[in-house]
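re: that chain from earlier
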Amino acid sequence: MINYYLEINSGVFKGREPQEEKMDYKKLLSKNNVYIVLILTLLFALILGYISYYELQREKDYLLELARSEGLNIAFSIQTLGSEFIINRDILIEVLSLFQKEGITFIDIVDRNGVVRLSTDEQRMNRSVEIQFSGRINYYELYDQENRRVLQIIKPFDFSDHFSSDLFGFLFLNDKYLSIGINLEGYYLRYNQIKQRVIINYLVILIISLLGVYMVFRLGENIIVKRTLREMRDYTSKLLETMDSGVISVNQQNMIKTINRKSEEIFEVKRDEVLNKDAEEVLPLKVRGKSIYELGLKEGKKVEEEIEFCTKDHIQKILEINTSLLAGEQGQAGGMVILVRDISRMKRLSEEMNRNKRLTYLGKIASSLAHEIRNPLSSIRGLTQFLFQSDSINEERKEDLKIILKEVDRLNQLINEVLDFSRPKKLDISCFSMEELIEDLVHLLKLESKEKEIVYELLWESPNEFIYADKDQVRQALLNIILNSIQAIPQKGKIVISLTSAYYKEQEAVQISVKDNGVGIDEADLSHIFDPFFTTRAKGTGLGLSIAYNIIEMHKGTITVESEKGKGTEVKIFIPRESKEEIE
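^ sequence. v structure.
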C-alpha cells in the first residue's frame, strides 16, 4: 500500500467586474433574483473547480509516480550490489556518488524498529523513522533539515536468488530496510507550473473572483464575530480580575483552567504555577477530609462550606467555599467553578467581639462581686487586727490570726485586680524608651526568680524605640506576660525578648516579642487564654493576660500568641506608633 501526503498552496486572485455586469447585477437584485444568481454562480464555480481539481490531481499523481519509480529503481540497483558493499558505509557513500542525482538526499539502512543503523548522512544515524507496514514498501512525504520536501521510500531487503549475500550480510540485513530520500522540490516546481497553466486554461480567475466576493462577506462576518468574542473575553477577564472573591475553574480532568487575581492573593500562588495543573496537587481543598473536586466532579454535589487552608508559608486561613457545576455532555459535569472568600479577618473580628462581650459582662459581674466582698472583708480584717493586738490572746491564737490577716490581704489583692480589670482607666500618655522599660523589668524579675535557672536574652533589632503610651500600664502588661513565661518554665530555661519595628493594620507599630521554651499551651486552651479567670495553674487567678490584653487594646494594639505543647510559647505585642493626641 502506498501512503503519501501532499500539501498545495492555492493562490487567490481578485478581479474587477465590468460596469455592464454591475448594472446587470443591480437589475437582478432589483428583480429579487439574487438567489438564482448566487446558485448559478455557485454551480458554475463548482463545475469549473471540479474540472480543475481533476486535472491537477491527475498531474500530481503522475509526478509522484515518477518520483516513486525513480526511487525504486535506485533501491533495486543498490540491492543488486550485494550485502558486502551495502554494510560498508564508505562503500555506500561511493555508491551514492555513483547514483547521485539532484533528486537523491540520503540512503539509510533501517532495522525493523525503525532505527537508522547505517546512513550516508551522519546526522541521521540512530534516528527513528516510521515503518507503518512491516515487510512492505512504505512511502512518506516529509521535510528534511533544509526544509525541502522529500519522498522517503522504505523497502525491505529481498533475499532471492538475484541478491548476492554472504552469511554475515544475511544476518545483518535479514530484518533491515533500505530507505531512500527523493527530493520533491523539482517535482513540485513542475506541478506548480502545470497548476498555473490549468488555472489559466479553465478561467479559474473568474471563479476565484466570485469566491473572493463571498469570502469578503464571510471574512467580514468572522472579523465581527471574533471582535465580539474578544471583547466579551476581555470584559469577562476584567470582571474576574476586579472581583473581591477568588474564582477558580477546573475542567473534567480536574485541571485548573482559570484563576483570578484575588485567588492568587488568597492562596499565595502565582498563576503560572497552577494553570493547567492538577487542582488536587496545587490547591488541595478538603471538606471533612474529602476533596471538594471529588465531591463536585465525581459525585455531582455542590459545596457550601467553611474550611481551613494552610498556605506554603504556613499561614492558616479560614475560607468560605461555594462551588457550581458546569453542564457537560450526557448530563455529566463538564467542569466546576469555585468561589472563594477569605473570611479569616472576619472570623477574628467576630471572635474579638464575642470575647469583648464576654469580658464586659464578666467585668460587670466581677465589679459587683468585688464591691460586695470588699465591705465584709474590711470588717473581718479590722476585727482580726483588733484581736491580734489584744493582750488576752495567747501566742498560738495569734499565729492563727496572722493566717487570717494574710488570706484577707490576698483576697483584697484579688479584688483590686478584678476592679482594675473591670474599671476603664484614663491613659496617662508620655514618651518613653521601650528598651529602658524592658531592661528595668528584666532586672527586677531576675531578682524575684532566683529559685529558677532562667537565662534572659534581649534582642534590639530596632534600637532607640520611643513610643507614646501609658508607661505604667504598658509596664504592667509586659510584667504579666513575662511572669507567665517564668511560670511556664519548670526549673531551667530561656526567655528571649525582642524589640522590632512592624506594621499593624497598615500602620507603623512597635513589636515586642516574649518567647520562652517552657511547657507550652494546649491547642484547645489557646482561644481562652485572654478570658478572665481562665488559668491552668492551681494558684493562678486567671486575670494576668486579660489585664494585659485590655491594656494593649486601650492603646489600639493587639496581642497574638503562638504555642506548641512541650516546646514553648511566643507572645507578640503590637503597639501602634501614634502621637499623644491620636491615642487620647
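The longest strand covers residues 316-327.
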